Amino acid sequence: MSGWLLGVMGGSGLYALDGLADARWERVETAFGRPSDDILVGRLGEVRLAFLPRHGRGHVVPPGEINARANIMALKMLGCTDVLSVSAVGSLREEMAPGDFVVVDQFIDRTKGRPGSFFGAGLVAHVPLADPVCARLAGLAGDAARGAGARVHEGATYLAMEGPQFSTRAESRLYRAWGADVIGMTAMPEARLAREAELPYALVGMVTDYDSWREADDVDVAEIIKVMGANGAKARTMVRGLAGALPGVRAGVAIDTVLDTALITAPEMRDGDMMRTLQPILARVLG
Predict the structure, then answer these.
(1) Active-site amino acid positions
(2) pTM of full prediction above 0.70
(3) CA 201 to CA 133: how far, in whole Å?
(4) What is the per-residue pLDDT across 193-236, written as a single tens digit (0 to 9) for each?
């Protein structure tokens, strides 16, 4: 077996994966509660994989109520080495058309009230987030998406909005002016938490609509569902292609050890209860 254990977070349009060997749904409990659903664990060739439907099977969890800390912690507890996020997005650029796939490399966070860190009073940490995605994983995912037949755009900025309502036209145009390329409701604080958990993270957005910046357009859920059907099939093919393209030996990346220089609370002042709560992500750095 390879050294990879690929976590896949499936969003709108990707609720299940097929073709996994030795597949089983595993229930995981974390110190932050239960994740969105049980996690499907299995193998694609020589690569172990853990799939978590971000909204739960049947799409029962709205964006603002996703327990992102439990989701990321559960993948960490299962031993995931890397995390690929796949989610539906709206396009803020004419060239990024419905049906296209977009490999994200930056985020603007406009969410509100979602717990955005594992750390806090008694154990303070500041992880670097200038480059919030893993370039290696993002590049491999983009190649796999092209192999699945998708038209792929690489190097996009994702605007994370609170939802669950879609944007007003004024908001959509403002986000375009800020330089955002796509918009969604789930990538934050997910990407932040993955970094704190030392999990290299990449996001592939599946474009379903043009948001509301174009004068004649509004977001229509019925139309989105139509596009999601085709996108979901390509996404499943992309994941299989990504698993087959991962190097036989997983070389380390800097994100694997980001907590080495992030913990700032003096050892003698660290809160014991918080240390125990965060043991799954602190085990490596604290020995």
Answers:
(1) 209, 211
(2) yes
(3) 5
(4) 999 999 999 999 999 999 999 987 676 677 777 777 778 889 99
